[in-house]
Amino acid sequence: MESRWLKNVCRRVLWSGCLLYVVFVTGPASAIDIHTDPEVIVQNGTTGILRCTFKSSEVVTKGTTVTWSFQSNQPDHRYFKAPYVIYYFFDGKEYPGPEEFRERVQFIGDINKKDASIQLSPAQFSDNGTFFCDVKNPPDVTGTQARTELRVVLKESLPQSNTKTIIFAVCGALILLIAVAVAACFAVRVLHNRHDYEGCTTLEGVSSEAPRPLKKVESSREGSRCTSPSGPLQGPVIYAQLDHSGSKNSFHKMEPVVYADIRKN
Q1: Cα 19–Cα 25–Cα 31 angle in degrees, nearest 5
Q2: Which pLDDT band holds residue 4 (cuts at 50, 70, 90)?
């Protein structure tokens, strides 16, 4: 009985040890996170850049792989039904895809910087569709591949760049502010000149109206001068008879004699 019990205990210990080894030593494979642009719009005949970055808790090694696939959105295209590998990267080497993309796909990323981007030059209308980016970085091999919708259009159909729109908006706002500032300065100057002009006219009116009472005084003085005598006034002349002989038969002669001078106070 004791031997059987010991055997059971040993088995349980061994199983527990194996389980702990699997959990803490080997550990589960972690997931890798891949990111791409949701949509890329490229002018026909130009270079299109398809960006792809990834995040991994493991160090990038030679065993890291990058796979780009393409699925067309055109029913008559041979890659319409399922994605087809157009580029493969492994152990620092590139493996080009089919002849349709062989000369036009170029790897522009850096695996050590966790960048798996490619460029497509020149872009063609037949490239309209979905591009898939898949990265494996063992032991990070579990993850969902990212996808980018590529639209190849004419130059007239390209949307305006947000950067240009922002620059135009900023320039327009600056011009508007400058115009408002100039208008405000002009209005202040006009009001200031008008205030100075009104002040000058008021002073001129006061200076021109001030001597008027003096003129009235002068005119009153002149009137008084005209009515008042300029020299002594001669009094009334009194005529008297003078007898020079003292006799009764003497000849009487009438002579005017000034009796008195009357001056007006």
Answers
A1: 100
A2: low
In angstroms, the CA 84 to CA 79 distance is: 6
Q: Tell me the per-residue pLDDT of 25-78, one tens digit each, with 9 for 90 and over.
A: 444 556 899 999 999 999 999 999 999 999 999 999 999 999 999 999 999 988
The secondary structure of 153-203 as a DSSP string is E-GGGPPPPHHHHHHHHHHHHHHHHHHHHHHHHHHHHHHHHHHHHHHHHHH
Question: How many contiguous H segments (helices) and E segments (strands) does the chain have?
Answer: 4, 13
Joined together, the tokens standing for residue 27 give 């550990």
What's the pTM value of the predicted model, to 2 decimals? 0.53
Burial 233-260 (b: 16+ CB within 10 A, else e): eeeeeeeeeeeeeeeeeeeeeeeeeeee
In this structure, which amino acid lies at residue 132?
F
* pLDDT (tens digit per residue) in 122-140: 999 999 999 999 999 999 8
Task: State whether residue 258 is helix, strand or coil.
Answer: strand
- Residues 63 and 140: their CA atoms lie apart, in Å, by 11
For residue 92, the model assigns a pLDDT of 86
